[in-house]
Amino acid sequence: MNRPTEILPSNHELLSPGIADLWFVPLGGCGEIGSNLNLYGHDGQWLIVDCGIGFDREPGAEAVITPDPGFISARRESLVGMVITHAHEDHVGAVAYLWEELQCPVYCTSFTAVILRRKLAEAGLLSKVPLHVLPTGASHRLGCFDLRWIGITHSTPEAQCLLIETSAGRVLHTGDWKWDADPQVGPSYDEETFRSLAALKLDALVGDSTCATVEGRSPSEGDVVAGINQVVSGASGRVVATCFGSNIARMQTLARAASASGRYLALFGRSLVNNYQAALETGFWDRDLTFIDPTHIGYLPPEEVMIIATGSQGDARAALTRIAAGNHPDLELEAGDTVVFSSRDIPGNELAIERVRQALVSKDVKIVEQTEHGPLIHTSGHPGRDDLKDMYEWVAPRIAIPVHGEPHHLAAHASLAADCGVPQQLLGRNGDLFVLAPQPGVRPGAVAVGRRTIRQSGS
């Protein structure tokens, strides 16, 4: 495996790529999960890919974390635009907090645009931000960067890979992805499209590492349907299910399970309602699946009740956390009720989630989680090792750059890429300068990075 190599003098203070240069600089999301903010540089210009948040998980804290954009905001006159690959908070959530420092046009697909517009409106920026909506498969030129959007499956609608072409080289930025032949919502991926990229002789693939330690493949969203139906139909009391709010496919699977078992369904939590409305607006929601007013839930017999609630990660203000603590205004759980965690624990959230679990246990509530031998009730939106092997076989890049993961995820990804015959693997962290052309290498710590903590109102 190729180790990081110093390729620029240490006194190189003003970093500006020349016409022969193609650079990648992560300001967030490399060596961590969350806070994704990526830069590409060529011929004196810069492009941002994704602008996401993280969360402060200290007990009692309720804050949003954003990457420090200081390096690129100081070069705002050279910034040609920002591209958002999909609607997850760790990729789009920081736009409303950081845009006034960046002052650049923003490009995304329709579902992400609906989510982003709501955030911009809350921040008073809706009329200020030039937001451009592009379809999957679109090609667009921003400054010296030729961009092509390539649709791929993930756990939110309209996830995109981004092909970035310049006169110095070509990069595939995968964003978050998985191979899913039955995604339940939206189209599947097109294998031939990805195989055709090998003919371009890509200089690099900058790729998702979240499940690079997981053997095999990530199951399809379609594979979860039977397991969720089994759990919901077998429950005797109320059912509360929690999942990631932007996973529209999972929300629809839960809603169909409620309908099939004769249960009235309600949404508890603003992010779920917002994502449902965005899916409805963009045609990703089955209009036959409806919800009742949450305030009516308490008047129904337990066996006729199902709720989808925010709080899969133990967030202090989320609906499930309040339900577990017994202070939600519309629902009180009782012995014999069931709570379904149709989600995974994001690293760093384990203690917060465990506090919620213990509060539920104290109420004698049945907890259903994904186990090795139980029904399949969750699948990751990220590629397992066999999925990654397919990607490298089909795309055949010259360099692999693992991102979107903690250090052990990045190392596992790099090792796998080497086993797949990728000639060079570049490992680094936030603030490192990855030079893709003319001479590949890494300058560690070339750019000052950090994070900002934004306290939420009411916290």
Automatic annotation (TrEMBL):
The keyword Metal-binding applies. CDD domains: RNaseJ_MBL-fold (cd07714). InterPro entries: Metallo-B-lactamas, RibonucZ/Hydroxyglut_hydro, RMMBL, RNase_J_2, RNase_J_b_CASP. It comes from the Bacteria. It holds the Pfam family RMMBL. Residues 34-217 form the Metallo-beta-lactamase domain. Keywords: Exonuclease, Hydrolase, Metal-binding, Nuclease, RNA-binding, Zinc. This is Ribonuclease J.
